[in-house]
Write a structure and sequence with these properties.
The protein has five helices and five strands; from the N terminus they run βββααβααβα. It has about 180 residues and is an alpha+beta fold. GO terms for molecular function: methylated-DNA-[protein]-cysteine S-methyltransferase activity.
Length: about 180
Amino acid sequence: MTTPLAPSSAPEISPSPGPFQAVVAAPGFALGLRCEGESLTGIHFLPPGPARAGTTPLAREAARQLAAYLQDARFAFDLPLAPRGTPFQHRVWLAIAAIPLGQTQSYGELARALTSSPRAVGGACGANPLPLVVPCHRVIAQSGRLNGFAHEKEGQGNGFYLNIKRWLLAHEIPERYTLRP
């Protein structure tokens, strides 16, 4: 499914300092890619904009793979990753990476599996430097609400990040998630 996001005003985003090695255009948003050495270290959600070719072979390959996923959710990533985070965050990110395509888990379910709290799991999800590759969009509230994505909660902010989460879930699980008009 490649339906663009419902129109919403993109937030005023000040990306982390430093240039992106590539930018991937997506339906209603863009992805800024950061690579260090031979590893992908960051994927950042940006307002909609044009793609920008990768400045390194790894950035070009990462951009190619992300574009392939955006066309077909069944695409399997094969990239060298180097996410920076605490040992706890790495445990959460590994658990998130194990959520199969077409499925979701709640913050509480992950917390129980990791003997932690849902709030701590949510914090680690929000700190995920490699969204889409580490599919934190597959983590939802116990109630089934999307609630929380890039630290944006339903009813707070302008909905930019939650619209991305909604698009990603509709892209992967169209029988359960639809885009809002």
